[in-house]
Amino acid sequence: MSGLLSAFFLVMIGVTILLQIAGRFLNFAFDATEVSGFCMAASTFLGLAYTLRANAHIRVTLMVGKLSAENKRRVETWCCGLGAAAFAYVSANAWLMAYDSFLFGDTSPGLMAVPFWIPQIGMALGASIMTIGFLDELFQTIGGRIPDFADAEAQAIDEELEAASLSMAGDAVGTGKAAIR
Question: Mean pLDDT across the stretch 110-131?
Fold first, then answer.
C-alpha cells in the first residue's frame, strides 16, 4: 500500500507541474515548486518500506556474502535492529514535528500557505511504515528465516544467472552452426 501511495505522489508531482504550465496560459498563479516538493517528500518516505521489501535499496553485500550462514544471520540481525531503531527515532520525531506544526498553525511561506502538518504526515507515515518493515525483517532473521530482502536478492541473482546461461547457450549453438558450415 505504501508503494502505491508513493507512486500516487510521484504522479501528483507531474500533475502539479502540468497545472502550473496550464496556469501560465490561463493567467492564474499556482506554486508547483512548493506542492511538488511536498509530494516528493511524501513519495520518498512512503516508498522506503516497499523498496526495502523489493531489495532495491543499495546494500553492500561483498563482505556479508563471504560470511558463514550463522555470521551472516548475526550481521543481518544487527543491521535490521539498527535500521529499526533509527527509523523508530525518525518516525517518532516526525510525528512530534507534525503535531507541533498543527498546534502552532505553521504554514508554508509560498503562495498557497499550506499548513505544514499536512505534508509532514506523509513523511511521518512513511518513516513509521519503514520501522515496521525493518522490525518484520528483524523478526524473520531472528526466527531463522531468510529475510524478504535477501530472498529477493537471491531471486534476482538466479534470474541473472539463468539469463546469462541462456545467452551463452545461444552463442554456443550459433558458434557450432558456423563451424559446421
Answer: 90
